[in-house]
Design a protein that fits this description.
By secondary structure, this protein is mainly alpha-helical. Helix content is about 80%, strand content about 0%. It contains 6 helices and no strands. It is globular and about 45 Å long.
């Protein structure tokens, strides 16, 4: 069931990533549908780590909310909602790994492309979350094969 929910997350994330790259704007209704469907699916389907996933979601949301106010609202509200959505698929430790991957890749992009004043951050969050979850799933699969 986790794979069904994560597949839906990938589908919505690809749509949001393309919109964020092309327009530097994300359709709010798609973002809310994505977050709500992920929340409901994880709430009812993944009972084993449900509390940890919810804690990670709220932790990421609060982190991005604080960055939103510290940076004088240069971070978009869509990034905060998407961060909540990402946390639904990450354990607390994976949250730090995904956040590190996201921030480092965005920093490298900013250094290479200095002319950009605005940065679409959702693609970097998607890359960090996707790579962290994929690594976690693959390492568990290898453990099962032993």
């Amino acid at each position: 069931m986790y794979l069904i929910s994560f597949s839906l997350y990938i589908l919505f994330s690809l749509i949001l990533t393309v919109c964020d790259i092309k327009k530097l704007h994300v359709p709010l209704f798609v973002l809310i549908i994505s977050a709500a469907s992920s929340f409901v699916l994880n709430l009812f389907l993944s009972r084993s780590l449900r509390n940890e996933f919810l804690f990670s979601s709220f932790f990421l949301f609060v982190q991005f909310l604080s960055v939103y106010f510290i940076s004088r609202k240069r971070l978009g509200p869509a990034d905060m909602i998407y961060a909540f959505n990402c946390g639904l698929y990450l354990s607390f430790v994976q949250t730090y790994i995904a956040l590190t991957i996201s921030i480092c890749s965005a920093f490298i992009f900013l250094v290479l492309k200095r002319k950009n004043k605005f940065l679409p951050f959702i693609p970097f969050m998607f890359a960090g979350t996707f790579s962290t979850v994929l690594y976690s799933l693959l390492s568990k699969r290898e453990l099962l094969l032993l």
